[in-house]
Amino acid sequence: SPTVARQSIGTRRISVLGATGSIGENTLDLVGRDPSSYTVVALTGGRNAARLAELAVQHRAELAVIADESCYADLRARLAGTGYRGRGRPQADSRRGAAGHLHRACQ
DSSP characters for 1-66? Predict the structure, then answer.
C-alpha cells in the first residue's frame, strides 16, 4: 500500500531551486500537503526576498539563498524578524558561496 511504501522510504530531503517561481511554488504546494514526508534543505530565489523568506519560514527550510546580492540584506532582515525556531533559524545567503552551502546541505 502507499502508506507502507512511504514509511519504508522515510523523510525525503529536498532543495527547491527557483522556489518563488511557478514551478517552485507548485512543488512547495505539494510538499505542504504532506510536510512530515519532507525536510526542506534549501530554497533559492532570484529577487523576491519577501516571498523567499515567507516560504523558508513556512516550510522550515534550513537555508534560503537569493541570487541577486542587492536583495540579500532584505532577505536576511525578513528572516531575522520571524522568530522561527524550528530545526534552527533559516540561514540567508547570497549567490556568493551559495553553491558550497547547497552542496553541503544536500549531502
Answer: -HHHHHHHH-PEEEEETTTTSHHHHHHHHHHHHSGGGEEEEEEEESS-HHHHHHHHHHTT-SEEEE
- pTM listed for this prediction: 0.73
Burial of 39 (0-12, 13-18, 19+ CB in 10 A): middle
Residue 102 and residue 42 in contact, taking contact as beta carbons nearer than 8 Å: yes
Closest CA to 42 of 20, 72, 64, 11: 64
The total number of residues written for the chain in this structure = 107
- 77 or 95: which leads in pLDDT: 77
CA angle 33, 64, 12 (to 5 degrees): 40
Residue from 3, 33, 24 nearest 67 by CA: 24
Tens digits of per-residue pLDDT, 45-94? Answer: 999 999 999 999 999 998 889 999 899 889 888 988 776 543 444 555 55
Q: Which grid cell sits at 52?
A: 523567499
